[in-house]
Structure formats: structure tokens, C-alpha cells
Amino acid sequence: MSDKIENLINSSVGKKIMGALGVTVPTELLRYHAQQPNFFSGALLFGAGNNAQLVDATLRNLQDSDASLALTTECAAQASAAVETTVAERYQALVFDGSGFTDGLQLIQAYRFFNANIRKLRPSGRIVILGRPHMNCATPEAAAAQRALEGLSRSLAKEVGSKGATAQLITVAEGAEANLDSSLRFVLSPKSAYISGQVIKVRSAAVNKTADWHKPLAGKIALVTGASRGIGAAIAETLARDGATVVGVDVVQMESELAKVMSRLNGLPVIADITSSDAPAKIAAALIKAGGADIVVHNAGVTRDKTIANMSEQFWQMTLDINLAAAQRITNELLSSGALNDGGSIIGVSSMNGIGGQRGQTNYAASKAGVIGYVDFMAKSDELAARNITVNAVAPGFIETAMTAAIPLFTRMFGRRLNSLSQGGLPVDVAETIAFFGNPASRGVSGNTVRVCGQSWFGA
Ligand code: NAD
User: Fold this and answer.
1) C-alpha distance from residue 381 to each of 41, 83, 199, 378, 386 (Å)
2) pLDDT in tens, 296-326
3) Beta-carbon neighbour count of residue 376 at 10 Å?
4) Atom from ligand 1 closest to the CA of residue 253
5) What pLDDT score does 389 carry?
6) How far is the C-alpha of 414 from the C-alpha of 168, rounded, in Å?
7) Smallest CA separation from ligand 1 atom 34, residue
8) 336 C-alpha to center of ligand 1: Å?
9) Residue nearest to atom 12 of ligand 1 (CA)
10) pLDDT value, residue 207
């Protein structure tokens, strides 16, 4: 949905002119396609600080990839099994295990690793830092050292973003090492192309192994609200690509669009306004008939922008109801009626504006911040934990959809560049993150709000 000026800028002539003017020209991001052999291929350099605890868990995963591995001396010393290593001139990924740091000054080892190797990172490359949740540390010094990894990874993300490369931190709780799998795969793969500067928290949970990483959702039922267009249609498509049967919901005005998307994906359309009083029961009944939901994606959302002095009560209330309250009523009904299966996933769609706020969007930002609060609270529920149900959210930034195409041209051109990757994301980038949350191997991933924003310059 790019416009003509944007296409001109991204042409080879345009790039030369913009380069000469000193304007950042975005690097085209590598995205996943289903024919790819595995989650990661290319040369990967793995380093570790003193007492690193995630070396074996990481190597176990990488042996399953097409990575040609190189290990730093410290890392090789900490690996329990001998690993064949090949030193490369350039790397597709740099992975560093800082989980053993108990003092801020020990981070000198991370500095040395990145100082020596960051120039060897390829365009669209990946940086992954591994650590422990700082609040679980035994001493304040260790908590500080682990939290320091977050500042390091977010800053590295800003240094490599102009090359289309990303950096993330994964924190793994003690005892959750076996759950690292899906998060490591996701951040190393092209599926995370538009995610950068994020922290993904992995916790203990009974994890189901994924037999086929190309069809991790085979046999699963996924509910997607607002599935007829934009991000919702991309979510439906991506979940179906991964093997799920999609139950798509949209309003009656979108009936024919929804029917087209669902017939293409062999999905089941349900016409409902999610705010209507009978919608929760209608959706629950359709899901029970289909075999019960394994993945629930609350994607339907609207904007009704006005500064607060000019905003009507109607604009305020309908935005809060569609974006927040309706999703809660549906979740309650799915839980109480048994329409949500054990081991399932509830996924909210928040927004960067819910994190950073936005002029003229008090209603929208309040609703989207509410989504994060709901996810944080629900992820702590003992009842859901006992049923191995995870609750997470995505917070998209500037995504190229009908919603953002309606923004005036120059504001739009400016807006899509306000992030480390200097470009807007695609609906599929949001969808890939949702598929990652929905993967049965991601039962250790709960209570996360992952921003899909190319590391937006705004927001916390
Ligand atoms: P969109 O307007 O293209 O699609 C939203 C869909 O939700 C539509 O099909 C619409 O008919 C449906 N919907 C709206 N109200 C409904 C209701 N009451 N009942 C059932 N369905 C309803 O929007 P999009 O850009 O694809 O956004 C999808 C989600 O992503 C929204 O929650 C939005 O807030 C969020 N988001 C989008 C962006 C972006 O850049 N596009 C950024 C951040 C967050």
C-alpha cells in the first residue's frame, strides 16, 4: 500500500538521490516464506559470559537449524557437548549469553564480544542476548547486571537498525530452559523482521514439543475477530498457513469480504458485531461446534479520533467498547462455556499509541493501554496457569493498512520512518508474532506485550 513518492524514493535512482541528500533509505527486510528450509540458516557466532547458564539450551536448538556455528572460547568451554564450529567472515546472527552475570562490571565481556564482532553482522542480521529475569536474582548487584542487558540490547538495536538488522533480549526464568526453543527460533527467523529492541520473557510451563515447525498449528482452531481485512485478514492467513482452522468474525457490513477470506482459507465465517449482547454466546457456540478454540485473537478495533475537548461521548464509549470491553466479555464467555481449550492462547492487539499516548486519541490510547493491563493481570491468573493457557499482546506501530493509508501523505511518509528500521511494517509482521504466541511450543511465553514497530522512537 505504498504511495508513488515512496516508490520513487525506494527505486535505485531514488536511493542515490536520497543518499546524496543524507536521508536514510530503508533496507528491504527479509521476510519468511513457506519454502524456507528451516528457521535459521547462515553463519552464527555464539558468545558467553562467565557462568553462562543457557549455552546448552541454545546449542540444542541451533543444532536443529541450518546454522554454521562459531563459538567464542568462553562459550566453547561452557558447552557440555563438543560442537563443530566454523569461523566465518560475516555473520547472520550474533548470540550472547549473559545469564551468568552477577555484577555490572562483568558486562565488559559482552562489550568485548560486540565490539569485536558487530561490524561482521550482515544486513537483516540478528542480535540475540540471553539473560535471566532481573527480579528473580539473588542479589541487587545481579539484578542490576541482568537489567543492564536490556539497555545494551535496545541500544544495539538502534545501532544496527539502518541495516535492517534487529536485536532482542530473551530472559529465561530458572527451570524454564527447555522453553527457550520457540522464542529463540522466532527472533532468529525472518518472521521477526519488524520487531526490534524487545524483551521476550520465558517462564516455566509444561511445553508441548512442536513436531513440524512448518505447520506448528496443525489441528488447532483459531478465532480471529475483525478478520475480513487489514491486519485481521493477515492473521487469519498466517494462522491458516501454519495449519490452523480459522473462525473469522466481522460485522455484517463486511460480510462479503469476510466470506472471501474464509473461503480462501477454508475457514468459518461468523457475522457478529462483537459489542452486541448476543455476540459472546454466538461466537462460543461456533467455536464449540468447531472443536473448541486453541487460539483467540482479539483483533477487531477502531479509531474515532478527536481531541478530548471535541470528542463526543459516543466516540469515546464505542472505541472503549470495541477495542477493550467486548474482548473481555468474549474471553469470559469462552472460559465459562468451555469454548477455550486447555493449553490455549489468548492474544490481545494493543498499539504503540497505547504505550506512548497520542494527541487526538485519548479514547484509542486508553483502550489499547487497557489491553496491556488486562494481559498483565490475566497472565498471573492461577486458574489459567493450571490450564496452561497463555495471555499475551502485540503492540503494532506503523503498519501499512487501510487505517494508516488514510493518514495525509507527508504525515504518513514521516510517520513510517520514526523507528530504527526507518520504514512501516506489514500486516504479516503482526500476524507472525501472533502465530508465535499461538504455537504450542510457546506455553512458556505469557504476560508479554511485544511491540511490532521496528523499534519506534516513541513510547516506553
Ligand atoms: P481495519 O480497520 O483495517 O480492520 C479492523 C477490522 O475490525 C475490520 O474488518 C472491521 O470491520 C472489524 N471491526 C470493527 N468493529 C467491529 C465490531 N464491532 N465487531 C466485529 N468486527 C469489527 O484495521 P487494522 O489496521 O487492520 O487494525 C487491526 C487491529 O490492529 C486494530 O485493533 C487496530 O487498533 C490495531 N492496530 C493497527 C495499527 C495500524 O497501523 N494499522 C497500529 C496499531 C494497532
Assistant:
1) 38, 41, 22, 5, 9
2) 999 999 999 999 999 999 999 999 999 999 9
3) 14
4) 11
5) 97
6) 25
7) 301
8) 26
9) 226
10) 77
Q: How far is the CA of 359 from the centre of ligand 1 (A)?
A: 19
Global pTM? 0.95
Instruction: Indicate which residues carry an active-site annotation.
Output: 364
Q: Which atom of ligand 1 lies nearest, measured to the CA of 326?
A: 18
User: Ligand 1 centre and the CA of 323: distance in Å?
Assistant: 9
Least confident of 37-41, 249-253, 394-398, 411-415: 37-41
Which pLDDT belongs to residue 406?
A: 84
How far is it, in rounded angstroms, from Cα 459 to Cα 368? Answer: 13
CB atoms within 10 A of CB 187: 26
> How far is the C-alpha of 297 from the C-alpha of 320, rounded, in Å?
17
ipTM for the complex? Answer: 0.99
Domains contained in the chain, CATH given = 41-202 (3.40.50.720), 221-452 (3.40.50.720)
Distance 427 CA to ligand 1 centre (A): 11
> pLDDT above 70 covers what percent of the chain?
94
pLDDT score of 209: 74
Q: What is the pLDDT of residue 16?
A: 65
**Nearest-CA residue for atom 32 of ligand 1:** 301
Q: What is the pLDDT of residues 230-243, one digit of tens each?
A: 999 999 999 999 99
Tell me which of 328, 347, 401 to substitute to probe ligand 1's pocket, judged by most ligand atoms within 8 Å of the beta carbon. Answer: 401
Pocket residues for ligand 1 (CB within 6 Å)? 225-226, 228-232, 249-251, 254, 273-275, 299-302, 322, 349, 351, 396, 398-399, 401-404
pLDDT, one tens digit per residue, over 423-443 is 999 999 999 999 999 999 999
- Nearest Cα residue to atom 3 of ligand 1: 230
Ligand 1 centre and the CA of 302: distance in Å? 5
Pick the closest to residue 136 from 178, 183, 171, 182 (CA basis).
Answer: 171
Q: Which amino acid is at 254?
A: M
Per DSSP, the residues of 234-281 read HHHHHHHHTTPEEEEEE-GGGHHHHHHHHHHHT-EEEE--TTSTTHHH
Say what angle helices 140-160 and 108-117 make with each other, to 10 degrees.
10
CA 168 – CA 311 distance, rounded (Å): 39
Give the amino acid at 81: A
